[in-house]
From TrEMBL:
Keywords: Signal. It comes from Arenimonas malthae CC-JY-1. Residues 1-22 form the signal peptide. This is Phosphodiesterase.
Length: 109
């Protein structure tokens, strides 16, 4: 028992001396960068005036039926984020991963 206690104390001491390291999570980076992205409700013209022309503009996609229940959604891609529009106003801006190995949130299942 004394040997087990000594081993645990030694292991705890070694762990306390180990250098701390942490990964930057996508969620944490996004929180820090949200001020540099378009705000919900801005028009396409306001976004383009503030952030310049996007690298790519995707064609609008609408669901089946009338546009009231399935409005057209357009996506503009910038270097660090994508902006989603419903009709001509921002509904969301999403940060791109900094690199393929960046850790993001677990997908909802």
């Amino acid at each position: 028992m004394k040997a087990l206690t000594l081993s645990l104390a030694l292991a705890a001491g070694l762990l306390l001396q180990a250098p701390a390291s942490a990964d930057t999570l996508l969620v944490d980076r996004v929180k820090a960068e949200t001020q540099a992205m378009p705000a919900r409700g801005q028009s396409m013209a306001q976004v383009e005036a503030s952030f310049g022309a996007p690298e790519r503009k995707h064609a609008a996609i609408a669901g089946p039926g009338d546009s009231k229940h399935n409005p057209p959604i357009t996506r503009w891609d910038y270097a660090g984020f994508s902006v989603y529009f419903e009709h001509s106003h921002v509904i969301d801006a999403v940060a791109a991963k900094a690199n393929p190995n960046e850790i993001g949130p677990k997908p909802v299942q």
